[in-house]
């Protein structure tokens, strides 16, 4: 397929999706494409293999997808993303997370990376900080949790605890039983105004003071606002920088991963960056038909906006990847959970699906019944590691067998005739078989991807995360939405500040005067008593 994709219109405000003739042709191609196929559709990418055989595909659909991307100016928008130009249109700034993993990053980025690595090397050499309490939420939390659980699952010499929620039980449990003299508290907040992080950080600081310690010796900050961290009492030598053009859900590649380096090593973080950088190159250069993020994006558009599938299931068949589910959930739903395009118009088709899941084989005993025979079902991203890092070969064979079997059952299904023949082969009478067979029917044709990693390495995980990042960007481009803002989240934060003030004992402001609805006013009055 041609890579010379250019916008078809010169107007900065993109055309409504549903007005595009390319969109209408794409819909027809998707609707007339067989939902079941015996063809093999493999896409090789850095660190992984993508099997798209479980998705609708045909030459006509691929051609329609190329035309749709051309109408959306894909080549130019991809270039602008990778060049650090302003692709976050509602906030007029870049989303340049790709540069954080580039081996040719600007000097400022490389210098901050080396400063953090040197700090970690010094802490390791001195065997300091037996305990790490990582305080952050959302993008300041999920990526670090994922990397630590993926590569520290068998334990490390440092005990790492994560505190995210404003619920006081979270910080109480995070500090319980630790020796404050050998504890480092890592505060991660891009703005250094995140209420959950600062409240939990304040409790940690009080805990350090109560132990007779100088908090400045036990606190580290990662932020884009170093002056605020400095005013909070953290010395410059323990403040690490991120940049305004790095969105929280894209920040695992930055100093946000200080805890990752302290827990599982700077080499793990370096490997993550290498894998992601290789996927960046693949995204930038691979032909569209063999471009893994693009192909996943087109399949996602078909499933959500043409077939009306309301959710996407993430099924990693590796227990070390349990935290991949909330990581992708935030990345996808915070980026694509919008219903107006960049011009402020309704998109006109369903956008961002609900993302959910859990590792297999636990998932098979939880919700796979609904996946197989429920009235709706959901597309699935199956993820497996071909090679295990333990020595129990029988376990791994069963794990892989379960993954392939669940996927095959979702694709193939089982007809009424097949179910009836199965019942008869088990010795049932024809009457019994007629009664039971409908309960054994599987619709089949459920869309899915299989993503196979050779093994779970920092390189392969980095490539996997970048695959999802670029898939999200491409889907946002097709829908015409901005995948880099999050105004819905901001609105809730503003309301929460006012309600928190109203809940304070002795507050003089009546809730009804602040414009709250009747039910909210009722509960403010009840809970402030």
How would you summarize the topology of this molecule?
Blueprint: H1 21-31, E1 42-45, E2 48-51, H2 59-71, H3 74-83, H4 107-125, E3 131-135, H5 142-151, E4 159-163, H6 168-175, E5 183-188, H7 195-210, E6 219-223, H8 226-231, E7 239-241, H9 258-264, H10 266-285, H11 292-306, E8 311-317, H12 324-336, E9 354-357, H13 368-373, E10 380-387, H14 393-412, H15 416-425, H16 430-436, E11 448-455, H17 458-479, H18 487-503, H19 518-527
Parallel strand pairs: 3-4, 3-5, 5-6, 6-7, 8-9, 8-10, 10-11
Antiparallel strand pairs: 1-2, 2-11
Helix pairs in contact: 1-2, 5-9, 9-10, 10-17, 11-17, 12-17, 15-16
The termini sit apart by 66 Å
User: Helix share of residues?
Assistant: 40-55%
* CATH class designation of the largest domain: Alpha Beta
The major beta sheet can be summarized as: 6 strands, mixed
Q: What class would the helix/strand composition place it in?
A: alpha/beta
CATH fold descriptor of the largest domain: Rossmann fold
Number of strand segments: 11
- Categorize the overall geometry: globular
Q: Would you identify the CATH architecture of the largest domain?
A: 3-Layer(aba) Sandwich
Work out the radius of gyration.
25 Å
In short:
The chain is α/β, with parallel strands linked by helices and 529 residues long.
Q: What are the main properties of this structure?
A:
six-stranded mixed sheet, Rossmann fold, single chain, 45% helix, alpha/beta, 529 residues
